[in-house]
Amino acid sequence: MDDKIRATILGAAVSVLAVGHLIMEYYKLRGRISDHIPRQPYIDRAYLRDMYMNSLLCRGDIHCIDQIRMRPVAFYELCNILTRYNLVHQSKNMSIKEQVLLFVHCLGHNVRFRVLAGRFHRSSETCHLYFRIVLKAVLKLYKYVVRFLLNDMFLYTSTSSKSGRTRKPVDLQYDDKFSDHPVCLVGLF
After folding, report:
1. Helical H runs in the chain?
2. What gap in Å lies between CA 123 and CA 44, rounded to an integer?
3. From the CB of residue 49, how many other CB atoms can be counted at a distance below 10 Å?
4. Domain count, the chain
5. Which of 107, 119, 135, 161 is the least buried, fewest Cβ under 10 Å from its Cβ?
6. Please, which residues bridge with residue 160 across strands?
7. Residue 87 sits in the same domain as residue 51
8. Residue 169 belongs to what domain range?
9. CA-CA distance, 118 to 25, in Å (whole number)?
10. How far apart are the C-alpha atoms of 30 and 112, rounded to whole Å?
């Protein structure tokens, strides 16, 4: 008799499990139960980042000047100069174009890294890191941009008089006002 009761209980348990499995499959097919936890909607941050960068650079010269304070040709030339002298390198996370655009956009609008993080879909730590990298690279450009004068060190000062404006040369080598300062001219690249 013991075997008969065990077999009955086992049969009842198997049938309850089978019916439960059928009910679960029925609701899965109707879409009421899913296999995974639903997440927030997927945002393609790389696509949005590229769209934002293209909106800054590819809308025309006037819009580009309003946004990053330079024409796209000058921006790409700055990227090429920083690349040519191996001052900025492309990383697996961020391209050179994005690094320089982040830097120039931050300087042009005086925005915080939190604002840049929202616009470029990056963390504020990443924005801060790459801003400092490009800042150090731009500061290293002084070797190629600043030219020290050895001869003909004259600075012209303009003075106004009743007869009009006149330009008077000031000798920088022998003037006491300029003896403490290094004399240099900054050339534009």
Report:
1. 2-30, 45-57, 61-68, 72-84, 96-109, 113-120, 124-139, 142-145
2. 15
3. 17
4. 3
5. 161
6. 165
7. yes
8. 147-186
9. 43
10. 49
**3-class state of residue 181 by DSSP:** coil
Dist CA 24 CA 134 (whole Å): 57
Q: Please give the distance of CA 29 from its chain centroid, rounded to a whole number.
A: 45
Helix (H) or strand (E) holding 186, with range, is strand 184-186
For residue 121, which of 57, 56, 45, 53 has the smallest C-alpha distance?
A: 45
What is the pTM (predicted TM-score) of this model? 0.60
Same domain, 59 and 123: yes
Examine the domain organization and report whether 130 and 79 are in the same domain.
Answer: yes
Q: Going residue by residue through the chain (189 aa), what tens digit of pLDDT does each one get? A: 688 888 888 888 888 888 888 887 777 766 655 566 666 667 888 999 999 999 999 999 999 999 999 999 999 999 999 999 999 999 998 999 999 999 999 999 999 999 999 999 999 999 999 999 999 999 999 887 776 655 445 455 555 556 555 555 555 555 555 555 554 444 433
Query: Which of 94, 92, 91, 96 shows the shortest CA–CA distance to 81?
Result: 96
Q: Which of 165, 140, 13, 49 is nearest to 88 (CA)?
A: 140
> Is residue 23 domain-shared with residue 67, that is, in the same domain?
no
Does residue 33 contact residue 24 with C-beta atoms inside 8 Å? yes
Both 133 and 156 in one domain: the answer is: no
Residues 118 and 152 in one domain: no
